[in-house]
Protein backbone atom coordinates (compact mmCIF):
# COMPACT_ATOMS: atom_id res chain seq x y z
CA UNK A 1 0.00 0.00 0.00
CA UNK A 2 1.27 3.54 -0.71
CA UNK A 3 2.35 5.75 2.14
CA UNK A 4 0.08 8.62 3.16
CA UNK A 5 2.98 10.94 2.38
CA UNK A 6 5.67 11.32 -0.29
CA UNK A 7 9.00 13.11 0.11
CA UNK A 8 10.31 14.61 -3.13
CA UNK A 9 13.98 15.58 -3.11
CA UNK A 10 14.69 16.64 -6.68
CA UNK A 11 13.56 16.48 -10.29
CA UNK A 12 15.18 14.40 -13.00
CA UNK A 13 16.72 16.84 -15.43
CA UNK A 14 15.68 14.74 -18.43
CA UNK A 15 11.99 15.39 -17.77
CA UNK A 16 12.00 18.78 -16.01
CA UNK A 17 10.83 21.85 -17.90
CA UNK A 18 13.72 23.13 -19.99
CA UNK A 19 15.26 26.39 -18.70
CA UNK A 20 14.71 28.24 -21.99
CA UNK A 21 10.99 27.37 -21.92
CA UNK A 22 10.70 28.32 -18.24
CA UNK A 23 12.31 31.67 -19.04
CA UNK A 24 9.57 32.39 -21.58
CA UNK A 25 6.95 32.43 -18.81
CA UNK A 26 6.33 35.77 -17.00
CA UNK A 27 6.55 33.97 -13.63
CA UNK A 28 9.56 31.91 -14.63
CA UNK A 29 7.35 28.78 -14.44
CA UNK A 30 7.68 28.90 -10.65
CA UNK A 31 4.36 27.01 -10.37
CA UNK A 32 5.38 24.21 -12.73
CA UNK A 33 4.58 20.82 -11.22
CA UNK A 34 7.08 18.00 -11.04
CA UNK A 35 6.80 14.94 -13.24
CA UNK A 36 7.88 12.88 -10.20
CA UNK A 37 4.89 14.21 -8.29
CA UNK A 38 2.39 12.78 -10.79
CA UNK A 39 3.86 9.41 -11.82
CA UNK A 40 2.94 7.46 -8.63
CA UNK A 41 -0.74 8.42 -8.90
CA UNK A 42 -0.88 7.50 -12.59
CA UNK A 43 0.56 4.05 -11.76
CA UNK A 44 -1.79 3.55 -8.80
CA UNK A 45 -5.08 4.62 -10.36
CA UNK A 46 -4.73 3.62 -14.03
CA UNK A 47 -3.36 0.80 -16.16
CA UNK A 48 -1.40 1.03 -19.44
CA UNK A 49 -3.56 2.39 -22.24
CA UNK A 50 -5.96 4.27 -19.94
CA UNK A 51 -6.74 7.93 -20.52
CA UNK A 52 -5.59 10.66 -18.12
CA UNK A 53 -6.94 14.22 -18.12
CA UNK A 54 -5.25 17.28 -16.62
CA UNK A 55 -7.79 20.15 -16.75
CA UNK A 56 -5.21 22.74 -15.60
CA UNK A 57 -2.28 21.36 -17.54
CA UNK A 58 -0.02 24.43 -17.39
CA UNK A 59 3.39 23.39 -18.65
CA UNK A 60 2.38 19.77 -19.28
CA UNK A 61 4.07 17.92 -16.40
CA UNK A 62 1.11 15.56 -15.92
CA UNK A 63 1.11 14.77 -19.64
CA UNK A 64 4.82 13.98 -19.56
CA UNK A 65 4.28 11.69 -16.55
CA UNK A 66 1.38 9.93 -18.26
CA UNK A 67 3.41 9.39 -21.43
CA UNK A 68 6.30 7.92 -19.47
CA UNK A 69 3.90 5.42 -17.88
CA UNK A 70 2.33 4.37 -21.19
CA UNK A 71 -0.99 6.16 -20.74
CA UNK A 72 -2.87 8.26 -23.25
CA UNK A 73 -3.41 11.75 -21.98
CA UNK A 74 -5.16 15.03 -22.69
CA UNK A 75 -4.47 18.40 -21.15
CA UNK A 76 -6.50 21.59 -21.16
CA UNK A 77 -4.79 24.94 -20.66
CA UNK A 78 -6.55 28.29 -20.74
CA UNK A 79 -3.44 30.47 -21.09
CA UNK A 80 -2.14 30.52 -24.66
CA UNK A 81 1.47 31.32 -23.71
CA UNK A 82 1.64 28.30 -21.39
CA UNK A 83 -0.16 26.14 -23.94
CA UNK A 84 2.58 26.96 -26.46
CA UNK A 85 5.34 26.23 -23.95
CA UNK A 86 3.75 22.88 -23.10
CA UNK A 87 3.47 21.97 -26.78
CA UNK A 88 7.17 22.67 -27.32
CA UNK A 89 8.04 20.60 -24.26
CA UNK A 90 5.94 17.63 -25.36
CA UNK A 91 7.27 17.74 -28.91
CA UNK A 92 10.87 17.86 -27.67
CA UNK A 93 10.23 14.73 -25.59
CA UNK A 94 8.40 12.93 -28.41
CA UNK A 95 5.18 12.65 -26.42
CA UNK A 96 2.92 12.03 -29.42
CA UNK A 97 0.30 10.20 -27.31
CA UNK A 98 -0.54 13.50 -25.59
CA UNK A 99 -3.36 15.75 -26.76
CA UNK A 100 -3.27 19.39 -25.67
CA UNK A 101 -6.29 21.68 -25.94
CA UNK A 102 -6.42 25.45 -25.57
CA UNK A 103 -9.42 26.76 -23.65
CA UNK A 104 -11.48 26.65 -20.47
CA UNK A 105 -11.61 23.20 -18.87
CA UNK A 106 -15.18 23.74 -17.68
CA UNK A 107 -16.31 24.26 -21.27
CA UNK A 108 -14.11 21.63 -22.93
CA UNK A 109 -14.38 18.72 -20.47
CA UNK A 110 -17.83 17.77 -21.74
CA UNK A 111 -16.57 17.45 -25.32
CA UNK A 112 -14.04 14.71 -24.45
CA UNK A 113 -14.33 10.96 -24.57
CA UNK A 114 -14.58 9.69 -20.98
CA UNK A 115 -11.27 9.41 -19.12
CA UNK A 116 -10.07 6.98 -16.43
CA UNK A 117 -8.30 9.52 -14.23
CA UNK A 118 -8.43 13.28 -13.70
CA UNK A 119 -5.08 14.35 -12.24
CA UNK A 120 -4.06 17.95 -11.71
CA UNK A 121 -2.40 20.59 -9.57
CA UNK A 122 -4.98 23.21 -8.64
CA UNK A 123 -4.16 26.82 -9.58
CA UNK A 124 -3.86 28.75 -6.34
CA UNK A 125 -5.67 31.92 -5.39
CA UNK A 126 -4.17 35.40 -5.22
CA UNK A 127 -0.91 34.95 -7.10
CA UNK A 128 -1.28 38.19 -9.10
CA UNK A 129 -1.34 36.56 -12.52
CA UNK A 130 -2.66 38.93 -15.19
CA UNK A 131 -4.70 37.37 -17.98
CA UNK A 132 -7.28 38.29 -20.58
CA UNK A 133 -9.16 35.04 -19.89
CA UNK A 134 -12.17 35.43 -17.62
CA UNK A 135 -11.97 31.78 -16.57
CA UNK A 136 -8.34 31.99 -15.40
CA UNK A 137 -8.39 30.91 -11.75
CA UNK A 138 -5.07 32.63 -11.04
CA UNK A 139 -6.65 36.03 -11.57
CA UNK A 140 -9.93 35.53 -9.67
CA UNK A 141 -10.68 38.87 -8.02
CA UNK A 142 -12.07 37.35 -4.82
CA UNK A 143 -12.01 34.02 -3.05
CA UNK A 144 -15.74 33.41 -3.43
CA UNK A 145 -15.47 33.70 -7.22
CA UNK A 146 -12.44 31.39 -7.17
CA UNK A 147 -14.31 28.67 -5.27
CA UNK A 148 -17.40 29.03 -7.45
CA UNK A 149 -15.32 28.49 -10.59
CA UNK A 150 -13.79 25.38 -9.04
CA UNK A 151 -17.27 24.12 -8.12
CA UNK A 152 -18.62 24.47 -11.65
CA UNK A 153 -15.45 22.97 -13.13
CA UNK A 154 -15.77 19.93 -10.86
CA UNK A 155 -19.31 19.41 -12.14
CA UNK A 156 -17.96 19.37 -15.71
CA UNK A 157 -15.09 17.05 -14.76
CA UNK A 158 -17.45 14.52 -13.20
CA UNK A 159 -19.24 14.24 -16.54
CA UNK A 160 -15.89 13.61 -18.25
CA UNK A 161 -14.76 10.93 -15.78
CA UNK A 162 -15.77 7.29 -16.19
CA UNK A 163 -17.85 5.79 -13.36
CA UNK A 164 -15.39 4.30 -10.92
CA UNK A 165 -12.60 6.61 -12.11
CA UNK A 166 -10.53 8.75 -9.76
CA UNK A 167 -10.11 12.49 -9.32
CA UNK A 168 -6.72 13.38 -7.81
CA UNK A 169 -5.95 17.03 -7.01
CA UNK A 170 -2.75 18.51 -5.57
CA UNK A 171 -3.50 21.77 -3.74
CA UNK A 172 -2.02 23.91 -0.97
CA UNK A 173 -3.35 26.01 1.84
CA UNK A 174 -1.91 29.50 1.42
CA UNK A 175 -1.20 32.72 3.24
CA UNK A 176 -2.40 35.93 1.67
CA UNK A 177 -2.29 39.44 3.12
CA UNK A 178 -1.19 38.06 6.47
CA UNK A 179 -4.16 35.67 6.55
CA UNK A 180 -4.32 31.89 6.39
CA UNK A 181 -6.52 30.74 3.50
CA UNK A 182 -7.68 27.07 3.82
CA UNK A 183 -7.68 26.58 0.06
CA UNK A 184 -6.94 22.84 0.20
CA UNK A 185 -9.68 22.17 2.73
CA UNK A 186 -12.22 24.26 0.83
CA UNK A 187 -11.42 22.39 -2.40
CA UNK A 188 -11.84 19.11 -0.48
CA UNK A 189 -15.35 20.17 0.60
CA UNK A 190 -16.26 20.96 -3.01
CA UNK A 191 -14.98 17.55 -4.12
CA UNK A 192 -16.97 15.81 -1.38
CA UNK A 193 -20.18 17.42 -2.62
CA UNK A 194 -19.85 15.67 -6.01
CA UNK A 195 -17.60 12.66 -5.49
CA UNK A 196 -16.97 9.91 -2.98
CA UNK A 197 -13.94 11.29 -1.13
CA UNK A 198 -11.37 8.53 -0.55
CA UNK A 199 -8.46 10.11 1.36
CA UNK A 200 -5.85 12.82 1.56
CA UNK A 201 -2.07 12.47 1.29
CA UNK A 202 0.80 14.89 1.74
CA UNK A 203 3.74 15.68 -0.53
CA UNK A 204 6.79 17.12 1.25
CA UNK A 205 9.57 19.01 -0.51
CA UNK A 206 13.07 19.90 0.63
CA UNK A 207 12.95 23.59 1.45
CA UNK A 208 14.91 25.44 4.13
CA UNK A 209 13.13 27.32 6.91
CA UNK A 210 13.40 31.09 6.92
CA UNK A 211 14.13 32.18 10.51
CA UNK A 212 12.63 35.54 9.72
CA UNK A 213 9.24 33.84 9.32
CA UNK A 214 9.39 32.15 12.73
CA UNK A 215 7.23 30.75 14.28
CA UNK A 216 5.49 30.13 10.95
CA UNK A 217 6.48 27.11 8.86
CA UNK A 218 8.31 27.01 5.55
CA UNK A 219 5.12 25.74 3.80
CA UNK A 220 7.13 22.95 2.14
CA UNK A 221 4.16 20.65 1.70
CA UNK A 222 0.92 20.29 -0.22
CA UNK A 223 -2.12 18.04 0.00
CA UNK A 224 -3.14 15.42 -2.54
CA UNK A 225 -6.91 14.99 -2.40
CA UNK A 226 -8.28 11.72 -3.77
CA UNK A 227 -11.93 11.11 -4.67
CA UNK A 228 -13.81 8.67 -6.85
CA UNK A 229 -16.71 8.88 -9.27
CA UNK A 230 -19.06 6.48 -7.51
CA UNK A 231 -22.02 6.57 -5.19
CA UNK A 232 -21.28 7.30 -1.56
CA UNK A 233 -22.03 4.47 0.88
CA UNK A 234 -25.47 4.62 2.45
CA UNK A 235 -26.67 2.68 5.50
CA UNK A 236 -29.85 1.19 4.07
CA UNK A 237 -31.44 -0.06 7.28
CA UNK A 238 -30.93 3.22 9.15
CA UNK A 239 -32.17 5.11 6.10
CA UNK A 240 -35.33 3.01 6.00
CA UNK A 241 -35.97 3.63 9.70
CA UNK A 242 -35.63 7.39 9.21
CA UNK A 243 -37.92 7.31 6.15
CA UNK A 244 -40.56 5.41 8.09
CA UNK A 245 -40.33 7.81 11.04
CA UNK A 246 -40.70 10.75 8.66
CA UNK A 247 -43.78 9.26 7.02
CA UNK A 248 -45.31 8.54 10.40
CA UNK A 249 -44.84 12.20 11.34
CA UNK A 250 -45.70 13.55 7.88
CA UNK A 251 -47.96 11.10 5.96
CA UNK A 252 -47.80 13.23 2.80
CA UNK A 253 -44.18 12.22 2.13
CA UNK A 254 -43.59 9.75 -0.72
CA UNK A 255 -40.48 7.64 -1.32
CA UNK A 256 -39.34 7.74 -4.94
CA UNK A 257 -36.22 6.88 -6.94
CA UNK A 258 -33.67 4.12 -6.39
CA UNK A 259 -34.42 3.64 -2.69
CA UNK A 260 -38.07 2.93 -3.47
CA UNK A 261 -37.03 0.47 -6.16
CA UNK A 262 -34.60 -1.21 -3.74
CA UNK A 263 -37.47 -1.70 -1.30
CA UNK A 264 -39.44 -3.29 -4.13
CA UNK A 265 -36.63 -5.81 -4.69
CA UNK A 266 -34.78 -4.19 -7.60
CA UNK A 267 -31.07 -4.92 -7.97
CA UNK A 268 -29.90 -1.37 -7.21
CA UNK A 269 -27.55 0.12 -4.59
CA UNK A 270 -29.04 3.43 -3.41
CA UNK A 271 -26.67 6.14 -2.21
CA UNK A 272 -29.49 8.24 -0.76
CA UNK A 273 -33.22 8.35 -0.12
CA UNK A 274 -35.33 10.40 -2.53
CA UNK A 275 -38.41 11.93 -0.92
CA UNK A 276 -41.23 13.97 -2.47
CA UNK A 277 -43.48 16.47 -0.69
CA UNK A 278 -46.44 18.44 -1.95
CA UNK A 279 -45.55 22.11 -2.38
CA UNK A 280 -46.65 23.46 0.99
CA UNK A 281 -44.33 25.97 2.68
CA UNK A 282 -45.65 25.20 6.16
CA UNK A 283 -45.03 21.49 5.60
CA UNK A 284 -41.54 22.13 4.19
CA UNK A 285 -40.60 24.16 7.25
CA UNK A 286 -41.93 21.49 9.62
CA UNK A 287 -40.02 18.71 7.82
CA UNK A 288 -36.76 20.68 7.96
CA UNK A 289 -37.22 21.43 11.67
CA UNK A 290 -37.92 17.73 12.33
CA UNK A 291 -34.73 16.75 10.49
CA UNK A 292 -32.75 19.36 12.41
CA UNK A 293 -34.07 17.87 15.65
CA UNK A 294 -32.63 14.52 14.50
CA UNK A 295 -29.18 16.13 14.01
CA UNK A 296 -29.35 16.22 10.21
CA UNK A 297 -27.37 18.90 8.39
CA UNK A 298 -29.57 20.69 5.85
CA UNK A 299 -28.11 22.09 2.64
CA UNK A 300 -29.22 23.47 -0.71
CA UNK A 301 -26.70 23.10 -3.56
CA UNK A 302 -24.00 22.49 -0.95
CA UNK A 303 -24.75 25.58 1.16
CA UNK A 304 -26.18 25.13 4.70
CA UNK A 305 -29.77 26.37 5.17
CA UNK A 306 -32.13 26.73 8.11
CA UNK A 307 -35.80 25.79 8.08
CA UNK A 308 -36.75 29.40 7.35
CA UNK A 309 -34.23 29.67 4.51
CA UNK A 310 -35.41 26.38 3.02
CA UNK A 311 -38.93 27.80 2.82
CA UNK A 312 -37.72 31.05 1.21
CA UNK A 313 -35.52 29.15 -1.27
CA UNK A 314 -38.35 26.79 -2.20
CA UNK A 315 -39.73 29.33 -4.68
CA UNK A 316 -36.65 29.03 -6.90
CA UNK A 317 -35.35 25.51 -6.20
CA UNK A 318 -37.70 22.74 -5.16
CA UNK A 319 -35.01 20.73 -3.42
CA UNK A 320 -32.84 20.39 -0.32
CA UNK A 321 -30.55 17.72 1.07
CA UNK A 322 -30.34 16.39 4.63
CA UNK A 323 -27.30 14.36 5.72
CA UNK A 324 -26.21 12.72 8.93
CA UNK A 325 -23.15 10.65 9.76
CA UNK A 326 -23.15 8.98 13.15
CA UNK A 327 -20.20 7.93 15.32
CA UNK A 328 -20.37 4.36 13.97
CA UNK A 329 -19.88 5.59 10.39
CA UNK A 330 -23.51 5.06 9.35
CA UNK A 331 -24.42 7.62 6.70
CA UNK A 332 -27.98 8.69 5.84
CA UNK A 333 -28.61 11.13 3.01
CA UNK A 334 -32.10 12.39 2.13
CA UNK A 335 -32.84 14.28 -1.08
CA UNK A 336 -36.12 16.08 -0.47
CA UNK A 337 -38.01 17.46 -3.47
CA UNK A 338 -41.29 19.34 -3.64
CA UNK A 339 -42.96 19.92 -6.98
CA UNK A 340 -44.81 23.15 -7.66
CA UNK A 341 -47.29 21.11 -9.71
CA UNK A 342 -50.19 19.82 -7.57
CA UNK A 343 -51.22 17.53 -10.43
CA UNK A 344 -47.85 15.77 -10.44
CA UNK A 345 -47.88 15.07 -6.72
CA UNK A 346 -51.50 13.89 -6.85
CA UNK A 347 -50.71 11.55 -9.73
CA UNK A 348 -47.75 10.05 -7.92
CA UNK A 349 -49.63 9.73 -4.64
CA UNK A 350 -52.32 7.73 -6.48
CA UNK A 351 -49.65 5.35 -7.85
CA UNK A 352 -47.89 4.89 -4.50
CA UNK A 353 -47.96 1.54 -2.72
CA UNK A 354 -46.83 0.43 0.73
CA UNK A 355 -43.58 -1.47 1.06
CA UNK A 356 -42.38 -2.32 4.58
CA UNK A 357 -45.00 0.09 5.83
CA UNK A 358 -43.64 2.92 3.67
CA UNK A 359 -45.49 4.64 0.80
CA UNK A 360 -43.35 4.31 -2.32
CA UNK A 361 -43.51 5.10 -6.03
CA UNK A 362 -41.33 2.42 -7.63
CA UNK A 363 -41.45 3.42 -11.31
CA UNK A 364 -39.40 6.24 -12.86
CA UNK A 365 -40.41 9.70 -11.71
CA UNK A 366 -39.73 12.82 -13.75
CA UNK A 367 -40.09 15.91 -11.58
CA UNK A 368 -39.56 18.21 -14.54
UniProtKB/TrEMBL annotation:
<dbReference type="InterPro" id="IPR001091">
    <property type="entry name" value="RM_Methyltransferase"/>
</dbReference>
<feature type="domain" description="DNA methylase N-4/N-6">
    <location>
        <begin position="115"/>
        <end position="233"/>
    </location>
</feature>
<dbReference type="GO" id="GO:0032259">
    <property type="term" value="P:methylation"/>
</dbReference>
<protein>
    <recommendedName>
        <fullName>Methyltransferase</fullName>
        <ecNumber>2.1.1.-</ecNumber>
    </recommendedName>
</protein>
<keyword id="KW-0808">Transferase</keyword>
<keyword id="KW-0489">Methyltransferase</keyword>
<dbReference type="InterPro" id="IPR029063">
    <property type="entry name" value="SAM-dependent_MTases_sf"/>
</dbReference>
<feature type="domain" description="DNA methylase N-4/N-6">
    <location>
        <begin position="37"/>
        <end position="86"/>
    </location>
</feature>
<dbReference type="InterPro" id="IPR002941">
    <property type="entry name" value="DNA_methylase_N4/N6"/>
</dbReference>
<dbReference type="Pfam" id="PF01555">
    <property type="entry name" value="N6_N4_Mtase"/>
</dbReference>
<dbReference type="GO" id="GO:0008168">
    <property type="term" value="F:methyltransferase activity"/>
</dbReference>
<comment type="similarity">
    <text>Belongs to the N(4)/N(6)-methyltransferase family.</text>
</comment>
Amino acid sequence: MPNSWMHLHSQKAAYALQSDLAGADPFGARDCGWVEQMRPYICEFTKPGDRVLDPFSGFGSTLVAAGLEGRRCVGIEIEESRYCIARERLEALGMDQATLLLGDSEALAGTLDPVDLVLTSMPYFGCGFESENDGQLYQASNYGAYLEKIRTTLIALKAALKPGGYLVVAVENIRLGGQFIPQAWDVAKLMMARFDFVEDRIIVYDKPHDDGASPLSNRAHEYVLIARHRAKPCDLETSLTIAQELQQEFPEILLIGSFARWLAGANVAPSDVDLLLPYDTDLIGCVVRWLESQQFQIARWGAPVSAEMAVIASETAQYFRAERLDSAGRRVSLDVSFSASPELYSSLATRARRLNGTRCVTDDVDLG
